[in-house]
Amino acid sequence: MLLARQPLPVAAAVEHLVGMQAQVPDDPYFGLWSRLTDFAPEELSALIETRKLVRLAAMRGTLHLVTAADALMLRPLVQPTLTKLLAGTPFGRETKGLELAAAMATARAAVDKAPMTLAALRKIMTAEHPELPAHAVSYVFHYTTALVQVPPRGLWGKGGAPKVTTAEAWLGKRLAKKPAADRIVLRYLAAFGPASVMDAQAWSGLRELRGVFDALRPRLVTFADDDGRELFDLADAPRPEADVAAPVRFLPTYDNATLGFANRRRIVPERMPAPPNAWAKTFLLDGFVAGYWQLVEDKRSARLTLTPFAALKRKDKDALAEEGARLLEFAAAGAKHAISFAG
Q: Does the residue 263 lie in any domain?
C-alpha cells in the first residue's frame, strides 16, 4: 500500500499487513498515514482502547500491533521462536533448570487481576518466590506468555509505562490451539510477495517453512530474482510494472516493508549510513530507502529534518518537501512548521 494510499478501514489495513511493528508506540500511526487515505489517528487509538487491536510480541519476538483475532492466532504460532530466543538470553541461562511453574502461575494471576509493569510484577515475585531471581523470572514470563501492552500506552498523543496483562484476560478468549502456518504464509505473500522462503522466515521468525511453501506450490506462481532465488506469490496478486512511479513515502522507525525480507536489497541500500539517532525514521524515493527523517516538536513548533543518503535532485527535494508538509499537518496540526535538509 505504498504506491497509492488505499481507502481501507484501519483494522482492515492492519489485518492485511499481518500486523505492524510497534516497538516505538507511534510507529503504526505513521505507517498507516503513509498507506491510507484520510487516516485519522484517533480511529486507531479508539480501536486499541476498545480492544479490537492489541500490542504484543509476535513475529520475530518483536512488539506488533495486530487485530484481536490475529493476536490469539499469531502468538501461539510464533511461541516456539520466542522460547528459543529466551534460551539464548541471560534470563534463560540464569533460570535454566529451575522449577518455575508456581512462579509462572503467580505472575499470570497477578497481571490478570490488574495490568502492571514488569517492575511491579518483580516485587510480587520477590515476595512470593524469594528463592528465585525475580528479574530473570519476570522476563521468562514475558517470553513464554502472550502478554498485551494495555492503553494508554500506544495511544496517539499519550503515553505511560508499559503495563501488561495476558491476551486471554484482555480479550476474553482463548489462544488458538493449532494455528496453521500455511494461512500465515498466504497472508504474508498477499501483503509482501513476491518473496522467497527465506524472506518469509526472516519476516516471521519461523523456521523450516520450505515444506509449507512446497505444499502451497500448486496455488502459487513462481519467479526468480536477479540472483536466481525462487520467489513465490499469489496468482491474483497485483504486480506493478517496473516503470510504475513510486511516490515519496515516510516510513516509521521500524516497518515491515524494510524488515519483512531476508533480502533487504530490494528496498534498503547495501551500504546504508548509520542513523543520526536510535529513533530516526526512513523515507522512500522511487521505492527505495533514501534517507532518514526526524520530527522534533515543542508546544508551539514542529521541525521536520530530512537527512538524505546522497545529494538530491531538485524534483526529489521538492517532492520530499511537499510530502513533508503534509506529514507536519498530520502530526503537528496547529503548530508552526519548518522543514530542513541535513547533510
A: no
Question: Same domain for 104 and 196?
Answer: no
Residues of the domain holding 322: 268-341
With beta carbons less than 8 A apart as the criterion, state whether 143 and 82 touch. yes
Are 269 and 289 in contact, with CB atoms under 8 Å apart?
A: yes
List the grid coordinates of 133.
Answer: 531471581
d(CA 272, CA 275): 9
Give bridge partners of residue 221 from the DSSP assignment: 233
240 belongs to a structural domain? no
Give percent helix, percent strand, percent coil of the chain, each to the nearest 5.
45, 20, 40
Per residue in 240-278, pLDDT (tens digit) is: 988 899 999 999 999 999 999 999 988 999 888 888 887
Give a yes or no: residue 77 inside a domain.
yes
Confidence of residue 299 (pLDDT cuts 50, 70, 90): confident
Q: Which residues pair with 305 in a beta bridge?
A: 294, 340
In a domain, 248, yes or no: no
